[in-house]
Amino acid sequence: MTNRYDTGMTVRRRVLGDAHVDRAEAAKTPFDQPFQEMITETAWGNCWASDAISDRERSMLTLALLAATGNFEEIPMHIRATARTGATQEDVAQAFMHVAVYAGVPKANHAFKLAKKTFAEMEDQGNAHP
User: Where is each Carboxymuconolactone decarboxylase-like domain found (predicted)?
Assistant: First the structure.
């Protein structure tokens, strides 16, 4: 493993939490291991590890980009990560408002639906969010 991989794994655990990363690592197979290494090094060890912007800002950008591109499957994971990145519910709402204007109301509407459900689950689990 590379230093970038180790950095990426540290950042990934900080943002997504140990439980999530442990589940993902346990599910890794020889088939997807190269892919998992690549995203750990690039997404987490390069992009998320940069100190050019805060985790809060990066979280908002990530959620907006996921919604704008219709990659809804990862939105709940990144909503849960906001409890560690510092992005508030208002931050997330503002990000999705931008999605509505620049990428379309239906995408923003679906993103809001997923976020509301995930925030409610977090609250039910005792992980209340600001």
Answer: 34-116
CA dihedral 33, 56, 11, 2 (to 10 degrees): 70
pLDDT, tens digit, 9 for 90 and up, residues 28-69 = 999 999 999 999 999 999 999 999 999 999 999 999 999 999
∠ Cα 79 80 86 (to 5°): 80
Distances (CA, A) of 123 to 25, 98, 118, 126: 26, 25, 9, 5
Q: Would you say residue 128 has pLDDT above 80?
A: no
Q: What is the DSSP string of 46-74?
A: IITT-SSS-HHHHHHHHHHHHHHTT-GGG
Is the separation of the CB atoms in 67 and 103 below 8 Å?
Answer: yes
Q: Does residue 127 have a pLDDT over 90?
A: no
How many alpha carbons lie under 13 Å from residue 112 in its C-beta half-sphere?
15
Q: What's the Rg (C-alpha) of the chain?
A: 15
Q: What is the pTM of this model?
A: 0.92
Other Cβ atoms less than 10 A from the Cβ of 21: the count is 17
